[in-house]
Amino acid sequence: MLNVAGELSGDSWGIFTFLCAALCNLPALPALNCTEELGPGRSIQKTYDLTRYLEHQLRTLAGTYLNYLGPPFNEPDFNPPRLARAERVPSATVDLDLWRGLTDNARLAANYRAYSRVLCSLRALDAQGTAELRHRLGHFCSSLQGLVLSIAGVMSSLGYPLPAGPPASPGGAPAQPGGAAPNDFLKKMDDFWLLKELQTWLWRSAKDFNRLKKKVPPAVVTLRMEARGF
């Protein structure tokens, strides 16, 4: 006799019961779990991308701030000699061969220290001119803070120790080498050189991170066996 759809014969029930019992008593089966070890490669790429983004941001910020300072600082051909007091920001003017001859650790540490000090100086800028200037300066400082943290992450992922930050004054704020400018013109000169040196640092850092990411192997994908039961 033919079975009607939806009904099970005695033999079918027996087979079904046997399969259920077999499945319930199977040992835990190993499962493959694909895990990606990010490593320093992705961190370096993100740091490189952030550096290029800051280069773009700085072009807009510098134009707005130099216009706020007024002539001669906003004139295209204005290129004064750097004063000794402008050393509050580490100079990016270093012999290229000498810079490339440094170890990766030394270059990363120099970048970290430089941007830490630049960030302190940027936050001290006189940005009372316009709401637009204050907004751009605040946004840029947030992005630069992200770069400092990103460089620290790269150093950590490569096993390098984090260098000491900028020295602090007795009041807790980062010290400004050379003290306050004695007059308004020298204060503007300090601000001019701050932006000029920052532009060079970002340009060189982008090249540093681009070379570094080519030296570091890409992320590794590993397969891990895990025991999973029913």
Structural class: mainly alpha
Radius of gyration: 30 Å
Estimate percent helicity: 55-70%
Any low-confidence stretches, pLDDT <50, length ≥5? 1-8, 28-37, 167-178, 220-230
Mean pLDDT rating:
76
Total DSSP E strands: 2
Distance between the termini: 38 Å
Largest sheet: 2 strands, antiparallel
Order of helices and strands: HEHHHHHE
Strand content: 5-15%
In the sheet with the most strands, the strands line up as: 1-2
Overall body shape? globular
Count of individual helical segments = 6
Word description of this protein:
- Mean pLDDT is 76; it is low at 1-8, 28-37, 167-178 and 220-230.
- The chain is mostly helical and 230 residues long.
- Helix 4 packs antiparallel against helix 6.
- The chain has 6 helices and 2 strands, in the order αβαααααβ.
- The two termini are 38 Å apart.
- Helix content is 57%, strand content 8%.
- It has a two-stranded antiparallel ribbon.
Question: What's the quick description here?
Answer:
This protein is mainly alpha-helical and 230 residues long.
What is the element layout, followed by pairings?
Layout (H helix, E strand, L loop, with lengths): L9 H15 L4 E9 L1 H31 L26 H5 L3 H20 L7 H27 L26 H32 L4 E9 L2
Antiparallel strand pairs: 1-2
Q: Could you list some keywords that capture this structure?
A:
6 helices, mainly alpha, 230 residues, disordered N terminus, 8% strand, two-stranded antiparallel sheet
